[in-house]
Design brief:
Elements (H helix, E strand, L loop, with lengths): L1 H24 L13 E9 L4 E6 L4 E7 L4 E6 L5 E6 L8 E6 L4 E7 L4 E6 L5 E6 L4 E6 L4 E7 L4 E6 L5 E6 L4 E6 L5 E5 L9 E2 L5 E6 L4 E6 L12 E7 L4 E6 L5 E6 L4 E6 L4 E7 L4 E6 L5 E6 L4 E6 L4 E7 L4 E6 L5 E6 L4 E6 L4 E7 L4 E10 L2
């Protein structure tokens, strides 16, 4: 009953937002970036309940189109070198999932690559030529040649891998095993498992520091973050992978937000309604701050000054000042904020709202809601892509 009442309240708000977006398309504020004629920028939103991707036109702040993809899209990545977007479709049991390739210049699906059972995450190498996709029910990671549009390897990756991240140097793949309660460390070149570290109940995500020396994993079924020191074979003496520490944070840590400068990580503790601050260099937990109702995602501004936190059981994003160590406000968005993406210029923050099926467009200069744009059902992941057409 509460859900239906909430939906009836949100329908007029979304209608008003759509009308506002139409007005704004012809009259953008003076402090928005001025783009050259050949500039394009889009935000891509996966809609798990609609089997579609919503494409938002960032230049004109409006919905561009909605593209059919595979069943239950759950993850999305933008190529760092090509004008392409990659969408992971989790599929429906017992059928396998797939990877949809979107041509960003024409916003059309140009290829579909078969995967395995219930793929749930994607990461790309720095050249944008290879994708690593965690198949959570097949207990494997698919290695995809994005040029040839085919799988070139399937790597055994522990019990229920839900995240597979490549180190910045491209040498190591770190996998979070949700059911295995572990981190699996894989040599990227050979595809062989180098090490496995248990004692992380509900391992759910992986964040790797920029020098490829350490990986951090939130133990979502407990209240700790695992830190793994990654192998340095060229060191003297050579160092192997090792469990560095388990750090106590809040209950049910589900997300890690790394500062762009790499100095700290912010942990969203979903059942403690708090965020914990981790100092990467010393593996110490600083303060823990009450932040909002069920925080599940965080993102740090490019100048390293502000942390934005999506609070799942609310219609708010909390804004936290990192330098001041305190909350400085909240931004009204849609219902159930779940995923973030900054615009290329950094003037807008896009927030995917799962329950109200929309994207809140937040204006960074004023820290306020600019408009709401409709999506398909259950928007769950989001990415920005900008480029110049020739």
């Amino acid at each position: 009953m509460e859900s239906s009442r909430r939906s009836s309240v949100l329908r007029p708000a979304r209608l008003a937002a759509a009308l506002l977006a139409l007005t704004l398309a012809g009259c953008r504020p003076h402090d928005f970036p001025q783009y050259p004629p050949n500039y394009r920028e889009y935000v891509y939103v996966t809609n798990g309940g609609s089997d579609t991707v919503t494409v938002l036109d960032v230049v004109n702040v409006r919905v561009d189109r909605e593209l059919p993809v595979g069943h239950n899209p759950v993850a999305v990545a933008a190529s760092p070198t090509r004008n392409e977007i990659y969408v992971v479709n989790s599929g429906a049991a017992p059928a396998d999932g797939s990877l949809s390739v979107i041509d960003a210049e024409h916003n059309a699906v140009v290829a579909t690559i078969p995967l395995h059972r219930q793929p749930v995450s994607i990461d790309l190498n720095s050249a944008g030529t290879v994708a690593y996709i965690a198949n959570s029910v097949s207990n494997s990671v698919s290695v995809i040649d994005l040029t040839a549009r085919r799988e070139i390897a399937q790597i055994a990756a522990g019990d229920q891998p839900v995240a597979a991240r490549l180190t910045p140097d491209g040498k190591t793949l770190v996998v979070a095993n949700l059911l295995g309660n572990a981190a699996t460390i894989i040599d990227a070149a050979s595809g062989k498992v180098r090490a496995s570290f248990p004692s992380c109940p509900g391992a759910s995500e992986v964040v790797i520091v920029s020098d490829s020396s350490k990986a951090f994993l939130p133990c979502s079924a407990g209240r700790q973050v695992m830190v793994v020191a990654l192998a340095e074979p060229d060191a003297h003496p050579a160092e192997t992978d090792r469990l560095e520490t388990l750090m106590d944070v809040g209950r049910a840590p589900v997300d890690l937000a790394l500062k762009p400068d790499g100095g700290e990580i912010f942990v969203s503790n979903s059942l403690s309604d708090s965020v914990s601050e981790i100092y990467n260099s010393t593996d110490e937990v600083g303060d823990t701050y009450m932040i909002g109702n069920t925080p599940i995602r965080g993102i740090v501004s490019r100048d390293n000054s502000l942390l934005y936190v999506a609070n799942d059981r609310s219609q708010e994003v909390t804004v936290y000042s990192i330098d001041d160590g305190k909350r400085i406000g909240s931004i009204s968005v849609g219902d159930g904020p779940a995923a973030f993406a900054f615009s290329s210029a950094g003037h807008l923050l896009f927030v995917a709202d799962r329950r109200s099926a929309d994207v809140a467009v937040v204006r960074i200069a004023s820290q306020s809601l600019f408009t709401l744009l409709p999506t398909g059902s259950d928007p769950n992941a989001i990415v920005d892509k900008s480029f110049n057409v020739q």
